[in-house]
Design brief:
single chain; mainly alpha; elongated
């Protein structure tokens, strides 16, 4: 039996590219579920997808900044040519070193968690649903 879910905040392409259970988004989604921020399977898919997308942007920017500051713009450009491949990851690891990459990974996760607010309890899906319902209700005179 085929089942479908409807998502509103992400596209099918974004899910295809960014959704993964072995990812930062999954671990933050677990925190969000524990905080009562995920009300449905669709919410879980959206949270994982959006967090992974955000994580990737922050991580790429941080690596480019470190490469540029420590090894010059040519190193940053070389990384950007293949940033979303194993070659790009290997280049960053070889150039920046294992210890700095661990720091970047940890700090990126902390920043994504802080900026997204996921797992903090402030992203209450029931409050968002109530606000949307109020907007749809006709105003009484």
């Amino acid at each position: 039996m085929k089942t479908t879910i409807t998502v509103q905040r992400v596209t099918a392409k974004e899910i295809e590219v960014y959704f993964s259970l072995d990812s930062p988004g999954y671990f933050l989604a677990r925190d969000a579920e524990r905080a009562g921020e995920i009300a449905s399977a669709a919410d879980a898919v959206e949270v994982i997808t959006l967090i992974n997308k955000f994580y990737q942007v922050i991580m790429r920017d941080r690596i480019v900044k470190e490469l540029s500051e420590r090894h010059g713009k040519p190193a940053a450009r070389k990384y950007l040519e293949s940033w979303n491949t194993d070659d790009g990851s290997d280049f960053a690891l070889d150039t920046l070193g294992k210890d700095l990459m661990k720091i970047i990974l940890r700090e990126t996760m902390d920043e994504v968690k802080r900026e997204s607010g996921v797992g903090s309890g402030k992203n209450d899906p029931t409050k968002a649903a109530k606000r949307a319902a109020k907007k749809r209700r006709p105003q009484s005179l």
